[in-house]
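Our preliminary data section would be incomplete without showing what the modeling component actually yields. Below, a chain of 154 amino acids is followed by its predicted structure, encoded as tokens that our downstream tools consume directly.
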Amino acid sequence: MVPHSDRTYLLQSQDARAMAQTGYSTPPPRRPFGVSLIAFLLGLYGFFTLLAGILVAVLANYSLAFSGTTLFGVTGIYVGVVLVIFGLIEMGVAVGLWHLSMWALVVAVLVLLYEVLTPLIGIGLYHAGYGGIVGIIIPLILLVYLVAVRRHFR
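Predicted structure:
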């Protein structure tokens, strides 16, 4: 009869051999909670952007077709299409972040850099008020967080 500690060692070594034979040496990385939250909120934001785009495009078409007046005009159709495209891109990046894809991290970091730098340029070039600094704080926090957890992405 094998003592308990020896049995545990045998089972662990058998598991290690099985993992080595199948090529799975380490389990996949766990998704950090913050990345899950960002992905969920970005997906929700993308969904509402998509919905707004559809609504703007439909209302623009409806007003042109039935009332003869233009609620949003032809420009409304274009704006609706652009919003639909942005909504689809945002939802795609959210899915990529959820699955810890490196391309989604790169896209999210680039967008957050844009969100941080745009108000800074406005303050520097146009002497805009410092109220824009408040709008920098959240994207900056998200940017720092995503860079800090980048090792989880593959």
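The chain has a mean pLDDT of 81. The chain is about 80% helix and 0% strand. Preliminary results of this kind motivate Aim 1 of the renewal.
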